[in-house]
Design goal:
heterodimer, A: about 110 residues, mainly beta, six-stranded mixed sheet, five-stranded antiparallel sheet, globular, B: about 110 residues, seven-stranded mixed sheet, four-stranded antiparallel sheet, about 50% strand
């Protein structure tokens, strides 16, 4: 089983709709969670961190469910510019290794006019 | 915008050539990383460094080597490139353990 699993999509969503996708992680010792955004043929950029209490940044809401070991990302009132691949990133720092970051394959989102 | 740079952005070379991919950051970050990413696939960590004279291999085995003589510079070298090395190579840096800032990447094609 992969450490971080995401539905690769693509998710084809009309502009203005709400879209949500999940990411599951296998390491119960995971401590930090993030969503990164990667545009086609570009580098990943941090979209938001995911806190235990959940957090919201404008149209984006991230939730963490430790019991079921998944995080979610909700995008409201989707824009054409939201089209990208969304990477789920999990950190399970065990005192060794490069901060223990593990990247998912990403979920490809296409917002259609 | 993050101040992390990679050169060249695109490189097409023949088998057996020695190449060095450059990565520099001006943020004073101690931690730097090299990832390899194939199209549609996840990032795989191949090297990392926690500071000057510190280098470690990542999760994905790679024939490349790295050096960290200066804080701002973290070059990656392939002594003898092969077609199997064709991929995108992304350099990143971070101040703490959380957010990593990525460079624009080098797309390498080995013929």
């Amino acid at each position: 089983r992969k450490e971080v699993e995401q539905d690769p999509g693509p998710f084809n969503v009309p502009e203005g709709a709400t879209v949500a996708f999940n990411c599951t992680y296998s390491n119960s010792a995971s401590q930090s969670f993030f969503w990164y955004r990667q545009d086609c043929r570009k580098e990943p950029k941090l979209l938001m961190s995911v806190y235990s209490s959940g957090n919201e940044d404008g149209r984006f809401t991230a939730q963490l469910n430790r019991a079921s070991q998944y995080i979610s990302l909700l995008i409201r009132d989707s824009k054409l510019s939201d089209s990208a691949t969304y990477l789920c990133v999990v950190r399970a720092y065990s005192g060794g290794g490069a901060d223990g970051l593990t990247f998912g394959k990403g979920t490809h989102l296409i917002i259609q006019p | 915008e993050a101040d992390i740079y990679q050169t060249p952005r695109y490189l097409v070379i023949g088998t057996g050539k020695k190449i060095t991919l450059e990565c520099s950051q001006t943020m004073g970050h101690d931690k730097m990383y090299w990832y390899q990413q194939d199209p549609g696939m996840e990032l795989h960590l191949i090297h990392y460094s926690y500071g000057v004279n510190s280098t470690e291999k990542g999760d994905l085995s790679s024939e490349s080597t790295v050096s960290r003589i200066r804080t701002e510079h973290f070059p990656l070298t392939l002594e003898s490139a092969r077609p199997s090395h064709t991929s995108q190579y992304l350099c990143a840096s971070s101040l703490w353990a959380d957010e990593q800032f990525f460079g624009p990447g080098t797309r390498l094609t080995v013929l």
